[in-house]
Design a protein that fits this description.
Length: 296
């Protein structure tokens, strides 16, 4: 049986659906507040628990052969910090997996994670990776970039902005919009996690995964507008003007739409070489435009 943490999230539900479709027995670790209804109709076992409460993990790991750990955050809200979720949470699930003598552990990290990363997000992702590599368990670490698909936050946020600006026809862009990204379709991410979990030849490796298109933020917006058949003007605003705004949002809003860590990451390219991914996972990832046409 496979345990999936974060199985009710955007990426998690796609991975769970594929696992069930392929005939795998799946258990999902969920909190009391998790939206279990997103997995309605699937033969999935639920176990209530929390990666930050080690005592709740023993039951979840019973009869488990493989763990797929997906829990992560892109912004800190309601007391959930990068350090607690990425570092402490990973330590807890790994300790429980070792005690349960789990055979294989699959970890979701993030593209851009590396020693000396400049954002706290990537720093804590690296700390978690190091715990995985030193755990003594057989593991696979996957580092996806921006993930697109129905119900994603990234593309749908800009699609909503494009729809709402039908009068002004102006889309604000933070900075020059020249940093490159490599969005990957969620179905391709699910395939990679499935192969990582079930393929015995994929072991003790870290993979950077991504789509076939390394494109600038400007090109991402242009592609979204092309698919939606909407014309908008991009207005580039200096990065510096958003720093105090992001700080103010962090201090005053429960769920800030922008934070300083995101501004740091916007200054970097977020691309990779997907040669190993295509070979080992036997996949030809979907181009960005084709991917967003499936749901926009």
């Amino acid at each position: 049986m496979i345990l999936v943490t974060g199985g009710t999230g955007f990426v998690g539900r796609n991975i769970v659906r594929l696992l069930v479709k392929k005939g795998q027995r799946v258990k999902c670790l969920v909190r009391k507040s998790s939206p279990r209804n997103v997995l309605d109709g699937l033969d999935v076992e639920f176990c209530t628990g929390d990666i930050l409460v080690p005592g709740t993990l023993k039951e979840a790991l019973q009869d488990i052969d493989t763990v797929i750990h997906l829990v992560g955050i892109i912004k800190e809200i309601k007391g959930a910090t990068f350090e607690r979720i990425h570092s402490e949470g990973t330590k807890n699930i790994l300790e429980a997996a070792r005690n349960a003598e789990v055979k294989k552990y699959i970890h979701m990290s993030a593209l851009g994670t590396r020693p000396g990363g400049i954002s706290r997000y990537h720093k804590t992702k690296w700390q978690a990776e190091e715990v995985v590599r030193n755990s003594g368990l057989k593991y696979v670490i996957l580092r996806p970039p921006i993930i697109c698909g129905a119900d994603d936050e990234f593309v749908n946020m800009f699609a909503k902005m494009i729809r709402q600006t039908f009068i002004t026809r102006i889309i604000p862009v933070i900075g020059k919009g020249e940093s490159r990204m490599q969005p990957i379709y969620v179905g391709d991410v699910a395939h990679c996690f499935y192969e990582a979990a079930l393929n015995d030849n994929i072991l003790n490796k870290t993979y950077e995964i991504g789509g076939p298109d390394a494109i600038s933020f400007n090109e991402i917006l242009d592609t979204i507008m092309k698919v939606m058949q909407k014309n908008r003007f991009k207005i580039h605003l200096p990065m510096a003007m958003f720093k105090p705004l992001a700080f103010l949002m962090e201090k005053t809003l429960k769920d800030p739409p922008l934070n300083r860590d995101q501004l740091i990451m916007l200054r970097e390219d977020n691309v990779c070489d997907i040669t190993d991914m295509k070979r080992d996972f036997n996949i030809q990832p979907m181009p960005f435009e084709d991917a967003i046409r499936t749901y926009l």
